[in-house]
Every structure is written in structure tokens, then in C-alpha cells.
Design a protein that fits this description.
The complex is a heterodimer. Chain A is mainly alpha-helical. Chain A is 80% helix and 0% strand. Chain A is globular, with a radius of gyration of 19 Å. In chain B, the strands form 3 sheets. Chain B has a 6-stranded mixed sheet with strand order 6-7-8-3-9-10, sandwiched between helices. A 4-stranded antiparallel sheet of chain B has the order 2-1-4-5, with helices on one face. Chain B starts with a strand and ends with a helix. Classes of the chains: A mainly alpha, B alpha/beta.
């Protein structure tokens, strides 16, 4: 197989996600409506509570990060979800394709969509709430985004793994996992206010570190972004490995056939 | 070298507290270049067997060799050389026919001009040009089936698996689909393995046939071999006026069954026993008004085996 053939296997997931997204109105809601509504609500809440500028930045960084995370993770989950809803999973898995082709291809589209959402929300928060999203410089933004995208990819893979192991009903994980992230990784508050065990859990979630990193540019304490990045890459590799095992298990249990019926 | 060799394939599906055996020690060999049919009643395990042959799912036990490769270990290499089309096919609903074929071609690692040419050829082969820019969800059942068949030839497979390719199609569309399968087979010189429970289809297309019942292979051979092995005879009806002693028919060598109705007799007989002239002679004293002979078909074989 030539490198161009191999590249096209990666791009097959990008291509499918792109067309499904541009044809379906719900993706417009995913990309613009809900992130924008969420940002405005949080921003207006900060106005009502009359918090200072640095606190506005703290909360808006969380709102932006959560939207990016949700958008990017769902793009990975769409590897299976679109096929699941169309009952076409077997069309994908009778082809000579591997888990990493699908994940990296979908991730590319997730990065594009996530970056677009970041830009939209950053500009909107600057315009409406005076949030200077470039305060930490371009490198800070890039590191924050890269870390968030890798974390999102792992969450998306967990959704895929759940579907392959437990069947169609597990697709609820696609919308639940980012909610759990919101609770424990300090999206809207410092993780220090969490109860002890949840604080421990928050330290195992890379998003916590990327939020701290971005917020450190606005004077909120120190950060351990290297630890966060290491964890994100570790989870990514482990998730990919487990995804491949889950694909093989679905072939053994017959789940692959049942998901197509 | 056979195109496919399966040995003692077993497969069970497990529920929380249940285990259902779907295939039990299925062994068969399919030669290169033949059209091989897998027949059986609903629930016989045909689709599961095709899913195993196409490496979509793994058997619990047994070995599978496809094009000389161990299909349980070298799955990736096998998938590059085969393809499958299923009855009642589904593809991502929002993609047009062309986009779905583009996507499938990408999954098989096609690119550039090869990809464009393969997709164009597949669209042309199945006369899909008028639907090329229609979304999959808007297509009729027959057109969806054509898309599935078009997808299955994109990578120029050496073995093509067709799982109930005419399922849900009206007779005219089913006939056209069979002609298209025959055309692909002749043009691309491939091995075709198909499942069906439509007997004339198997008889028209298949060189050899395997019958599955309740997950076990119960017969294998050419349509002629199966008919002979099961002693399924020709059918004859005679409409007559006058007197007839049915006992005269029953004692004719080769006559296997006689059913008598007012003015009509239906018989089953072994054609090789040269029984026809003797049967007609038994009607001396009566006027034959009408007579007809039907050759046994696979429907009869199927009914016999499905009992």
C-alpha cells in the first residue's frame, strides 16, 4: 500500500464527518448555537455577579474549553455514531482499515471544528465581555488547544469502546462524559474546592492541567502543563490500544454484526 | 489452491444468561472462479457464515483460509482482496451515492485517478448515473442494492461475497440484479460466494451449492448432484377421460409417487428409468386430454433438505 493509499484511509473518516456535518442541521447547533449560548449565559452571569476581570477570564476560559472538548470528542465518537445511526458499521469494518486510521482521520476534523469554535468563542468573549484571549500569547493558546484536542480524542475513543462493548445504548456516553469532565476538572471553579477524592480524580484528568495552564496567563497560580500533556498522550495511546481490542472483541462476540442490524 | 477453505467453523452468540449455537462444524472448500451458493431456511446461519468468511466477525472454533492466507490471522491482507454486498444494505444516509462510493474507495486505500476511475466504473456498471448525486436515504430498495453491489467491486476483489443480493427486490429488479452479478463474474473473473433462499436464483447462478440447516452443513454439490442424491424425480401430470387403473401406474419401475384426482393423475418418477413410455401405455383405454412434465428444481431439493 502506497503512502497516498494509507493517507486516504486516514482521510476517509475526515471526509465522512465533513459531509455528514455539512448536510445536517444539528451540527450547526453543535458548532455555533450551543457554544455561543453557553458562552453568553456564563458571561452574563459574571456581569450579574459583578466579578472582576480576572474572574471573568477564569470562567470564560472554562466555558471555551468545555465547548472545544465537546465538539472535538463528538467528532471521534462520530466514527461509530454516524455508522450506528445509519446501521452501516459493517461497511466500515469489512474494509482493510484499522482503529488508528479512523481515530486520526476523525481527529483531524475535530481539530478543525474545535479550532473554529475556539476562534468564534474567543472573538465573541472579547467583543461582549472584554476577555483578552491572547494575554498568554499564541504559544499558550496552541499548547492549550493541542492538549484539549488530545484529551477530547481519548474521551471520544472511550465512547466508541463503550458502544463496541455494550451496544447501541452506550451512545449516551457521547454526551455524558464531557459532563463528568466539567464537574471534576475545574471548568468553572478551582479544583481545590472539590471534596478530597474528587480532587484526586481531577489530578488524573489532563484537562485540569490545560485549564490551569491557560488561566496562569491571567494570574491564576502555577501550572504543570508537562504533566498534563504526558497524561493526555498516555491516555490517548492506552485508549487507542483498548479501542483496537474492543474492535476485535466486537468481531468475536458478534456485536459488529448486531450493530449493523 | 481453493479460493476459500473453511474447516470445522463453529460460532455461538452469547446473551447474559444464554448461549445460542449458530454454526456447528461447517467445513467446505470453494474453488477459484466458481459461483458458490449457500442456501438454507431463515436462521440457518447463512449470514453469520458470510460474516465469518468476509472477516467481519471471528469464529469461536475452526480454521479459515482465504486466497491461501490464514483469514483469522492475516485479516487485513484478506480484507484488501475481498469485498461483500449485503441484502437490505445501509450506508451513511446523508452521503450521496457518489460520496458513499468515494468514502468506501478511500477505506480500501484507493486514491487519485484510480479512485475516480473505480467509482465511475462502478456507477456505470450498475447504471447508477441518474442517482449519483442523490442522498442514500432517498433511494429505492433496488437502487440501494445496486449501490451496495457497486461498492463491492471498487477494490476489484478476488472473492466477492453477496449476502442475499436480491432480498426485498421486485422480480424484475431481482432479474436485473442477477444479470449484473453474472456480468461482474464474467468481466472480472472472480470467485463469487452468495447466500439466498430464492431457489431459482441459486439454480441460475451457482456452480455448486451448500445447504445449511440449523447451523450445520447438510448437503453440498452441483444442483444436478443434489437432485440425484436426494432422488428427487420429474413431475408429470396427465388429464384424461375414461377408465384408468392407478395400480398399473404404481407398479411401473421408476414411478415413485402417484396421486389421483378426478380426471387427473400426478406422478413423480425417475427419468433415468425410461418410465415415460410405460406410463403413457398405462393409459390405454382412456383418452389423454393433456400431459405435462416438469423437471425437478432446487425448490424441491430445498424443501426435501429443510424437512
Amino acid at each position: 500500500m502506497s503512502w497516498r493509499g494509507e493517507l486516504n484511509k486516514f482521510l476517509s473518516a475526515t471526509y465522512k464527518n465533513w459531509i455528514m456535518s455539512k448536510r445536517n442541521v444539528f451540527t450547526v447547533f453543535e458548532l455555533i448555537f450551543w457554544p455561543f449560548i453557553s458562552l453568553l449565559s456564563i458571561g452574563l452571569l459574571t456581569r450579574f455577579l459583578e466579578v472582576d476581570e480576572s474572574m471573568v477570564a477564569f470562567v470564560l476560559v472554562g466555558a471555551i474549553a468545555l465547548s472545544i472538548l465537546q465538539i472535538s470528542q463528538i467528532d471521534i465518537a462520530y466514527i461509530l455514531l454516524f455508522d450506528l445511526w445509519s446501521k452501516s458499521i459493517k461497511q466500515t469494518f469489512v474494509a482493510p482499515i484499522r482503529g488508528y486510521h479512523l481515530v486520526l482521520g476523525a481527529m483531524l476534523f475535530g481539530v478543525i471544528r474545535g479550532s473554529a469554535v475556539f476562534l468564534l468563542l474567543a472573538v465573541a468573549s472579547s467583543r461582549f465581555f472584554g476577555f483578552d484571549f491572547l494575554a498568554g500569547g499564541l504559544v499558550t493558546i496552541i499548547v492549550f488547544l493541542v492538549g484539549t484536542f488530545i484529551t477530547a480524542a481519548s474521551i471520544g475513543m472511550v465512547v466508541c469502546i463503550s458502544i463496541l462493548l455494550f451496544g447501541q445504548r452506550a451512545d449516551v456516553a457521547a454526551w455524558s462524559l464531557s459532563g463528568i469532565m466539567m464537574l471534576v476538572s475545574g471548568v468553572y471553579y478551582p479544583v481545590e474546592i472539590l471534596p478530597g477524592p474528587l480532587q484526586l480524580l481531577s489530578k488524573s484528568i489532563p484537562l485540569t492541567y490545560f485549564l490551569e495552564y491557560y488561566r496562569s496567563a491571567y494570574g491564576y497560580g502555577s501550572h504543570q502543563v508537562l504533566l498534563g500533556m504526558s497524561l493526555a498522550l498516555l491516555y490517548f495511546a492506552v485508549s487507542l490500544l483498548i479501542l483496537n481490542l474492543a474492535i476485535e472483541r466486537a468481531r468475536s462476540t458478534g456485536m459488529m454484526l448486531r450493530l449493523s442490524e | 489452491m481453493p479460493a476459500l477453505r473453511a474447516t470445522k467453523i463453529c460460532k455461538s452468540f452469547r446473551g447474559l444468561f444464554t448461549k445460542k449455537e449458530v454454526l456447528h462444524e461447517v467445513s467446505l472448500s470453494i474453488e477459484e472462479g466458481e459461483i458458490f451458493g449457500i442456501l438454507g431456511p431463515n436462521g440457518a446461519g447463512k449470514t453469520t457464515l458470510m460474516a465469518i468468511f468476509s472477516t467481519l466477525i471471528r469464529p469461536d472454533e475452526g480454521t479459515l483460509e482465504v486466497l491461501g492466507l490464514d483469514a483469522l490471522r492475516k485479516t487485513h491482507a484478506v480484507r484488501e482482496r475481498i469485498n461483500i454486498s449485503s441484502g437490505n444494505p445501509n450506508f451513511p444516509w446523508s452521503l450521496t451515492v457518489r460520496e458513499n462510493l468515494n468514502h468506501s474507495a478511500m477505506l480500501y486505500g484507493l486514491y487519485g485517478r484510480d479512485l475516480a476511475r473505480s467509482v465511475d466504473e462502478a456507477i456505470a456498471a450498475f447504471e447508477l448515473e441518474p442517482h449519483a448525486d442523490s442522498k442514500f436515504e432517498t433511494l429505492s430498495t433496488g437502487t440501494k442494492q445496486k449501490v451496495s453491489l457497486a461498492k463491492s467491486i471498487l477494490n476489484r476483489p478476488k472473492i466477492l461475497f453477496l449476502d442475499e443480493p436480491t432480498s426485498g427486490l421486485d422480480p424484475e429488479m431481482a432479474m436485473k440484479t442477477r444479470a449484473l452479478i453474472q456480468k461482474i463474474y464474467e468481466e472480472q473473473e472472480i470467485t463469487v460466494v452468495l447466500t439466498t433462499h430464492y431457489m431459482p436464483e441459486a439454480e441460475e447462478l451457482c456452480d455448486r451449492i451448500a445447504f445449511l440447516r440449523e447451523g450445520s452443513l447438510i448437503a453440498l454439490g452441483t444442483p444436478g448432484e443434489l437432485k440425484r442424491a436426494l432422488k428427487i424425480g420429474h413431475k408429470m401430470f396427465v388429464e384424461y377421460e375414461g377408465d384408468l387403473d392407478p395400480m398399473k401406474l404404481c407398479i411401473i419401475p421408476g414411478v415413485m409417487d402417484v396421486r389421483e384426482f378426478p380426471g387427473r393423475v400426478e406422478l413423480v418418477f425417475d427419468h433415468s428409468e425410461m418410465a415415460v413410455s410405460r406410463i403413457i401405455r398405462a393409459f390405454e383405454g382412456a383418452d389423454i386430454l393433456d400431459i405435462g412434465i416438469d423437471q425437478p428444481d432446487l425448490e424441491d431439493v430445498f424443501l426435501e433438505l429443510a424437512r
